[in-house]
Amino acid sequence: MKHFLLFFGILFTLTLTAQEPYKFKKVIDLEATPVVSQGITGTCWSFSSTSFLESEIIRLTGKKIDLSEMYQVRNTYPLKAENYIMRQGRTQFGEGGLAHDVMNSVERNGLVPEEAFSGLFAGETTYNHSEMVAVLEAMLKTYVENPGRKLSKKWRTAIEGVLDAYIGKNVTNFTFEGKQYTPQTFLAMTKIQPEDYVNITSFTQAPFYSKFILNIPDNWSNGSFYNVPLDEMMATIDNALEKGFTIELDCDVSERTFSSKEGVAVIPENADNNIKALQGIYPEKKITQQYRQDEFENYDTTDDHLMHITGLLRDQNGRTYYKVKNSWGTDENRTTNGGYVYFSEAYMRLKAISVTVHKDALPKNTATKLNL
Q1: Residues 87 and 93: beta-carbon distance below 8 Å
Q2: Which of 171, 222, 227, 277 has the most CB atoms within 10 Å of its CB?
């Protein structure tokens, strides 16, 4: 009887511990600009990458600058349209993109502050690209169908016209803090050098320590990624944060165990705890390289959102979480933690498709293996 009572007492204690609400302690909290909303658009790739660049500008110059997300969106759409038309519609056209699309745009077109190009017109306060995208898609399908039997070059002017009408005409010069700039001279002022940023991923379909094109739907521009073992990708994230670098993140947020409302993302060991684990601590699954690969290849892990890693936390049991800045605003009905989501280490290991970091943020051994 005493043994039974002792067993019951231990079981009861473990049950209480498993359901204990999260208590987080910040370990690393790097500077970032305020959380903003991407509105009704699929442009998280620009909002997150722009936030990442804003933190990089703080690190490099000490300046806090609100950059324009829509300037890069405005300059990327014509390239997406050309890719779709030249491939005769046999590729994806949509609102999605990746971090390197922003970096490529910055290298070609420079940077501008939000005050110089907001992508909003008088009376507009939020972004809604639903109509614009529908119009663009209808136009592109018409061009691909080629009803005139000979495609003219007028499609480029027409696409530019739609973008001018919905996002605005490109800016070529502007005043910022009393000084005149072009997008390129403004870029030089920020000290951002796009070539200094690298994409890191971890999948076994390509050799480790090689560079390959990751075949995911939003990689319409065929960007390349350095491939490293999973433990090294995680070590890259940790090393970057410890050195004062934030990280751009491409990830899967379609899981029931990701919640912007609760502000956490976890991978419970027992799927029966998926919902309960959003509010209290439960044991998590051990994520191996093979399990990560299997989940990617069976479509359970997909790239559907980009976010910005700005810090590291630990819960009351000493487990690691990553502070991840979202772009869904700060409405308390939809988000908590001020618009941030805390990713458990297990969630990051499984659901991080790739990260983008400054090359100086790489661990030395990884940089050496990648010849960087």
Answers
A1: no
A2: 277
Nearest by Cα to 35 from 324, 231, 355: 324
50 in Cβ contact with 136 (< 8 Å): no
d(CA 369, CA 201) in angstroms, rounded, equals 14
H/E stretch holding 28: strand 25-29
| DSSP label of 268 | B
On the CB side of 289, CA atoms within 13 Å amount to: 14
The answer to whether the beta carbons of residues 339 and 51 sit under 8 Å apart is no
Q: How many CA atoms lie within 13 A of 270 on its CB side?
A: 8
The CA–CA distances, whole Å, from 10 to 5, 160, 171, 269 equal: 9, 68, 67, 20
7 has pLDDT over 50:
no
- Give the max Cα distance, the chain: 89
Residue 133: phi, psi to the nearest 5? -65, -40
* Strand 197-201 with 224-227, pairing: parallel
Q: What is the pLDDT of residue 62?
A: 97
Look at residue 53 in the predicted model and tell me its pLDDT.
98
Average pLDDT for residues 141-159, to the nearest whole number? 93
Say which amino acid occupies 115.
E
Domains of the chain: 22-369 (3.90.70.10)
What's the distance, CA 290 to chain centroid? Answer: 24
Q: Once rounded to an integer, what is the mean pLDDT over residues 87-94? A: 92
One-letter amino acid at 322 equals Y
According to the model, what pLDDT value does residue 153 have? 86
Distance (Å, rounded) from C-alpha 33 to C-alpha 28?
Answer: 16
The encoded tokens of residue 150 equal 């000979």
